[in-house]
Model the fold of this input.
Amino acid sequence: MSGPILVTGGAGFIGSHVVDALLSSGHDVRVLDTLLAAAHREPPDYLDPRAEWTEGDLRDPDTVARAVAGVSAVSHQAAMVGLGADIGDIAEYVAHNDLGTAVLLRALAARGFRGRIVLASSMVVYGEGRYACPEHGIVRPPARPPAALDAGCFEPPCPVCAAPLAPRAVPEDAPLDPRNVYAATKVAQEHLCAAFARETGVTYTALRYHNVYGPRMPRDTPYAGVASLFRSALAAGGVPRVFEDGGQLRDFVHVRDVARANVLALTGEITGTFNVASGTPRSVLDMARALTRAVAPDREPVVTGSWRAGDVRHVFASPDAAAERLGFRGGEDFDAGMREFAAAPLRA
Done:
């Protein structure tokens, strides 16, 4: 590539691993990160000095104009993540995720950018996962009503006949159904980038991450993933507290696999939208037990039976398109990854 690869959010959990993977592959890397207070108390100590680091807000046009100058590709990782604390976060999510993306794309257009854009998207865009009814085939259940959740009825029934449903892997062409603010902003990011690509001819790839875990996750924050919250509880001498009955199925994918998928998307010839996942669904309780075994074998997670608004029951990926077209398959072993994660320090 003729110029550096810009990684927005490159000081964060996933972004920093993307930076490391690109540097290890011999690429020049430029980073723009605002060091958002919800994710960083101070600049992290793992930043590789071989990259060109800039602290700045993605929503600021002048900062972004300088950051995109001469770049050959963009890995857009910057975002507020997680469900957030409450609906009061809505303006911040839209500002950082959607306005920030729009400012970035406008700056690239002004520079006549003709490289590749890879967007960090998320499985949350799917809402509930894919389900099959024995009689009605593939169906899309609505959001689970609070009364059913209060009663401990966590599995969504068939919306036609109310029969029990079987969860299935979600392919990339599944309808989008965002069910919280964060999910809505990720859908908007995908649409903004797709519109930019259509109008400019730029090549664009969206990577829909599933539940990412690994070193450098932040501790004790409502914006962290479930793996980080469980790890924080164990580090404090407690145990993971698992919502619902723990049977929620997810795909837990190691951050090094996610970084590798980004390198493939940034340096290959394939475009499109791809699930980035291990390909092996596991329950949230399975993950909590694996992490607890690695930290404190004498403890057991607590299943609370409580629930959170905006959560979905089952969502896990079909890895087929990423394997066949992008050349990506998850390679990190789950149990070994959990042991590594259990020993890794959490970012303040």
In short: The first strand starts at residue 5 and ends at 8. The CA atoms of residues 289 and 297 lie 9 Å apart. The mean pLDDT is 93. The first helix runs from residue 13 to 24.
